[in-house]
Amino acid sequence: MVQRFDVGARLSEMAVHNGVCYLAGQVAADGAQDITGQTRQVLAAIDALLARAGSDKSKLLMCQIFIRDLADFTAMNAVWEAWLPAGAAPPRATVQANLAKPEWRVEMVVTAAL
Protein backbone atom coordinates (compact mmCIF):
# COMPACT_ATOMS: atom_id res chain seq x y z
CA MET A 1 0.00 0.00 0.00
CA VAL A 2 1.18 3.50 -0.84
CA GLN A 3 0.35 6.21 1.67
CA ARG A 4 0.40 9.78 0.29
CA PHE A 5 0.51 13.02 2.28
CA ASP A 6 -0.76 16.45 1.23
CA VAL A 7 -1.95 15.25 -2.15
CA GLY A 8 -2.52 17.94 -4.75
CA ALA A 9 -3.41 17.97 -8.42
CA ARG A 10 0.27 18.00 -9.41
CA LEU A 11 2.14 16.26 -6.60
CA SER A 12 2.13 14.86 -3.09
CA GLU A 13 4.50 16.28 -0.50
CA MET A 14 5.42 12.77 0.59
CA ALA A 15 4.73 9.12 -0.15
CA VAL A 16 5.46 6.11 2.04
CA HIS A 17 5.81 2.58 0.67
CA ASN A 18 7.48 -0.59 1.98
CA GLY A 19 9.17 1.19 4.89
CA VAL A 20 10.60 4.00 2.77
CA CYS A 21 9.55 7.64 2.84
CA TYR A 22 9.92 9.72 -0.34
CA LEU A 23 9.69 13.51 -0.07
CA ALA A 24 8.93 15.95 -2.85
CA GLY A 25 11.40 18.77 -3.37
CA GLN A 26 11.30 21.09 -0.37
CA VAL A 27 11.84 24.83 -0.79
CA ALA A 28 11.75 27.84 1.52
CA ALA A 29 8.38 29.41 2.30
CA ASP A 30 10.12 32.81 2.61
CA GLY A 31 12.14 33.31 -0.56
CA ALA A 32 13.36 36.71 0.66
CA GLN A 33 15.83 35.06 3.04
CA ASP A 34 19.46 34.38 2.15
CA ILE A 35 20.83 30.87 1.58
CA THR A 36 21.32 30.31 5.32
CA GLY A 37 17.72 31.18 6.14
CA GLN A 38 16.31 29.28 3.19
CA THR A 39 18.36 26.18 4.01
CA ARG A 40 17.10 26.28 7.61
CA GLN A 41 13.51 26.52 6.36
CA VAL A 42 13.97 23.61 3.98
CA LEU A 43 15.51 21.42 6.67
CA ALA A 44 12.70 22.31 9.09
CA ALA A 45 10.16 21.29 6.44
CA ILE A 46 12.01 18.00 5.96
CA ASP A 47 12.02 17.39 9.72
CA ALA A 48 8.27 18.05 9.91
CA LEU A 49 7.40 15.73 7.02
CA LEU A 50 9.63 12.94 8.29
CA ALA A 51 8.05 13.22 11.75
CA ARG A 52 4.58 12.87 10.22
CA ALA A 53 5.70 9.61 8.61
CA GLY A 54 7.31 8.32 11.81
CA SER A 55 10.89 8.88 10.66
CA ASP A 56 13.65 11.43 11.26
CA LYS A 57 16.86 12.81 9.77
CA SER A 58 18.97 10.01 11.29
CA LYS A 59 17.28 7.63 8.83
CA LEU A 60 18.05 9.50 5.59
CA LEU A 61 18.87 7.16 2.72
CA MET A 62 19.61 9.78 0.05
CA CYS A 63 19.54 13.53 -0.51
CA GLN A 64 19.55 15.51 -3.74
CA ILE A 65 20.25 19.21 -3.41
CA PHE A 66 19.56 21.75 -6.13
CA ILE A 67 21.24 25.11 -5.55
CA ARG A 68 20.76 28.20 -7.68
CA ASP A 69 24.20 29.73 -7.14
CA LEU A 70 27.30 27.68 -6.35
CA ALA A 71 28.64 30.70 -4.46
CA ASP A 72 26.10 29.67 -1.77
CA PHE A 73 27.51 26.13 -1.51
CA THR A 74 29.70 26.74 1.56
CA ALA A 75 27.00 28.55 3.54
CA MET A 76 24.40 25.91 2.64
CA ASN A 77 26.78 23.15 3.73
CA ALA A 78 27.40 24.87 7.09
CA VAL A 79 23.66 24.73 7.88
CA TRP A 80 23.37 21.16 6.53
CA GLU A 81 26.30 19.91 8.63
CA ALA A 82 24.98 21.56 11.81
CA TRP A 83 21.56 19.92 11.23
CA LEU A 84 22.76 16.43 10.37
CA PRO A 85 23.33 13.97 13.25
CA ALA A 86 26.94 12.81 13.61
CA GLY A 87 27.59 9.61 11.70
CA ALA A 88 24.31 9.83 9.77
CA ALA A 89 25.39 11.58 6.56
CA PRO A 90 23.46 10.03 3.66
CA PRO A 91 24.65 9.65 0.07
CA ARG A 92 24.14 13.07 -1.48
CA ALA A 93 24.35 14.95 -4.75
CA THR A 94 24.42 18.71 -5.12
CA VAL A 95 23.92 20.37 -8.49
CA GLN A 96 23.52 23.91 -9.72
CA ALA A 97 20.05 24.42 -11.16
CA ASN A 98 17.61 27.05 -12.31
CA LEU A 99 14.80 26.55 -9.81
CA ALA A 100 11.11 27.05 -10.62
CA LYS A 101 10.93 30.45 -8.88
CA PRO A 102 13.74 33.01 -9.05
CA GLU A 103 13.62 33.72 -5.30
CA TRP A 104 14.32 30.11 -4.37
CA ARG A 105 18.00 29.52 -3.64
CA VAL A 106 17.87 25.83 -2.66
CA GLU A 107 15.62 22.80 -3.07
CA MET A 108 16.15 19.43 -1.40
CA VAL A 109 14.70 16.00 -2.16
CA VAL A 110 15.21 13.28 0.46
CA THR A 111 14.42 9.62 0.84
CA ALA A 112 14.38 8.08 4.31
CA ALA A 113 13.71 4.77 6.02
CA LEU A 114 10.88 4.58 8.53
How do you describe this structure in short?
The chain is an alpha+beta fold and 114 residues long.
Instruction: Tell me the strand percentage band.
Output: 25-35%
CATH architecture: 2-Layer Sandwich
Mean pLDDT across the residues is 98
Radius of gyration: 14 Å
Q: What is the string of helix and strand elements? A: EEEHEHEE
Query: Please, what is the CATH homologous superfamily?
Result: RutC-like
Number of domains: 1
Q: Which descriptor suits the 3D outline?
A: globular
Total beta strand runs: 6
> Which sequence of strands runs across the widest sheet?
1-2-3-6-4-5
Number of helices: 2
Uncertain spans: none
The largest sheet, given as strand count, sense and whether it forms a barrel, is:
6 strands, mixed
Query: How far is the N terminus from the C terminus?
Result: 15 Å
Task: Provide the structure class.
Answer: alpha+beta
Q: What is the CATH top level name? A: Alpha Beta
Percentage of residues assigned to helices: 25-40%
Determine the CATH topology: 60s Ribosomal Protein L30, Chain: A
